[in-house]
Design goal:
Layout: H1 13-23, H2 29-41, E1 48-51, H3 58-66, E2 71-76, H4 79-89, E3 96-100, H5 106-113, E4 121-127, H6 132-136, H7 162-168, H8 171-182, H9 187-199, H10 207-217, H11 231-241, H12 244-257, E5 259-269, H13 272-286, E6 305-307, H14 317-322, E7 330-336, H15 353-357
Parallel strand pairs: 1-2, 1-4, 2-3, 4-5
Antiparallel strand pairs: 5-7, 6-7
Helix pairs in contact: 1-4, 2-3, 8-9, 8-11, 9-10, 12-13
This protein binds S-adenosylmethionine.
S-adenosylmethionine binds near residues 103 and 131.
Function: Specifically methylates the N4 position of cytidine in position 1402 (C1402) of 16S rRNA.
Subcellular location: Cytoplasm
Main location: cytoplasm
Length: about 375
């Protein structure tokens, strides 16, 4: 996704939509649609896809253009994304419906819009993380590059802001957040500096102040490598503020259970913590649920998913050149082999911090 900053804010939704469409390139669009195509083109009823991360509607628009019979239900928790994508996709009429929700509500959405009488759909797409719309909107506080209030909520109508988290959390909890969600090895030093400011009565109160505090807290020798030193802290706070990993852990099994037999899931992750959750959920469905030493697989205990990607796919040179935002992407996909009422994907117990930090490498 190329994202030039929004300047000269346009006034109408249509202007916003047009500008967004022009500046946003969906990541691995053709590959996502190729992977979903068999499920959509061979759907037994009117094909339905749920785009769990509507954003600016780039993937959805690509799908609506490529598959003329397709209906897309677009979920987003961000009201601005819903408004903008709805304006952009209005020309598709009732082939597109926006739903403001978090994507762990995907099963209920599938039930509501299913065309097959089973409460299932043909395809589910998840393009995780923040959109360039959110990153570019300075006031949202996602970017360390420009001064703004420390908000970072994707849904600004509810929940704790990053400012409230920084002001109120115990130091140990802040260290845990920076380590677990940002893989920040200098978490204790950064938190010490945050708490020192808090105790002195002038807490960090903007993105710029936080970015500068982090820069000063980390050893000088490490400032020259790996991008801005505040990058990991900002990622960690954003993940915590939006409970991103907890929601994703619930959402992937629910997305899998929303698919008919032959239905397909595609997920694009942008950091290893997300990708590991996706990898584990897919791996759990591609194995028979029997002990390794059992010589046969009893009926009903076989795999209920087949992986469609070998490990995680990455962006190739051409995609990287056209769309720098694709650099960290890891794409995984699977097809449903058996109905969810026979083999429901299990929602895993929440991962502990330690487990999240281990096994960082995913393929
Ligand atoms: C990377 S963007 C998607 C971009 C989109 N594929 C496109 O082409 O325009 C991710 C979107 O997912 C939304 N999102 C993130 N977490 C969510 C959640 N738990 N539930 C619903 N939407 C979520 C964000 O608000 C953001 O708009």
């Amino acid at each position: 996704m190329s994202h030039a900053p929004l300047t000269n804010r346009p006034e109408s939704d249509d202007d916003v939509a047009a500008q967004a469409a022009a500046r946003h390139t969906p990541v691995l669009l053709r590959r996502c649609l190729d992977l979903l195509a068999p499920a959509i083109e061979e759907a037994p009823a009117e094909p339905v896809m749920i785009d769990c991360t509507l954003g600016m509607g780039g993937h959805t628009e690509g799908a609506l253009r490529r598959f003329p019979r397709l209906r897309v239900i677009g979920i987003d928790r961000d009201s601005q994304a819903i408004a903008l994508a709805s304006a952009r996709l209005a020309p598709f009429g009732d082939r597109f419906t926006a739903v403001r929700a978090t994507y762990d509500e995907v099963e209920a959405v599938a039930h509501r819009f299913s065309q097959d009488g089973e409460g299932t759909v043909d395809a589910v797409l998840m393009d995780l993380g923040v959109s360039s719309l959110q990153l570019d909107d300075v006031e949202r506080g996602f970017s360390y590059a420009r001064p703004a209030p420390l908000d970072m909520r994707m849904d600004q109508s509810q929940g704790m802001t990053a400012q409230e988290l920084l002001d109120g959390a115990e130091p140990g909890e802040l260290v845990r957040i920076l380590r677990a969600y940002g893989e920040e090895r200098f978490a204790p030093r950064i938190v010490e500096a945050i708490v020192r400011r808090r105790s002195a009565g002038h807490p960090v109160s903007s993105t710029q102040e936080l970015a500068e505090l982090v820069r000063q807290a980390v050893p000088a020798a490490t400032r020259r490598t790996g991008g801005h030193p505040a990058k990991r802290t900002f990622q960690a706070l954003r993940i915590a503020v939006n409970a991103e990993l907890d929601v994703l852990e619930r959402a992937v099994p629910r997305a899998l259970n929303s698919l008919r037999v032959g239905g397909r899931l595609v997920v694009e992750s942008y950091q290893s913590l997300e990708d590991r959750i996706v990898k584990q959920a897919i791996a759990a469905g591609t194995r028979a649920s029997v002990p390794d030493d059992l010589p046969f697989v009893p009926e009903g205990a076989g795999a209920y998913l087949q992986a469609l990607t070998h490990g995680a796919e990455r962006a190739d040179e051409a995609e990287l050149a056209a769309n720098p935002r694709s650099a960290p992407v890891r794409l995984r996909a699977a097809v449903r082999l058996r109905p969810a009422d026979q083999a429901p994907a299990a929602e895993p117990k929440p991962l502990t911090t330690t487990r999240r930090r281990q096994g960082r490498k995913t393929r």
